[in-house]
Amino acid sequence: MNQRDQAVLIVGMALVTFAIRYPVLAIVGKLELPPLILRTLKFVPAAVLTAIIVPGIVFPDGVHAQIDARNAYLIGALVAVLIAWRTRNLLLTI
After folding, report:
1. Based on C-alpha coordinates, what's the Rg of the chain?
2. By three-state DSSP, how is residue 20 classified?
3. Helix and strand numbers, DSSP H then E, in the chain
4. Mind listing the pLDDT tens digit for each residue in 17-74?
5. Dist CA 37 CA 88 (whole Å)
6. Structural contact between residues 40 and 33, judged by C-beta atoms closer than 8 angstroms
7. What is the number of other CB atoms lying within 10 angstroms of the CB of residue 80?
8. Would you state the pLDDT for residue 1?
């Protein structure tokens, strides 16, 4: 696949993604959502980030779960959680 084909593919994927998501956002943007929904939506970023990160930590080889002291990803995640909990400093946690 040459660069032109790759560029066309990327632009096509971007257009499809935009076409699928924009109408929903446009409609919801005009509605007044109930307070319960608004409170619930505040948890979406944390839930999505957790869903992306945890499998990489628990399944470091992509296949087998490894929850022991030999899993460097798990040790690093635990240290990061501890630092975040104690300092509440995002830069230090990263």
Report:
1. 20
2. helix
3. 5, 0
4. 999 999 988 888 888 889 999 899 999 999 999 999 999 999 999 999 999 999 999 9
5. 27
6. no
7. 14
8. 82
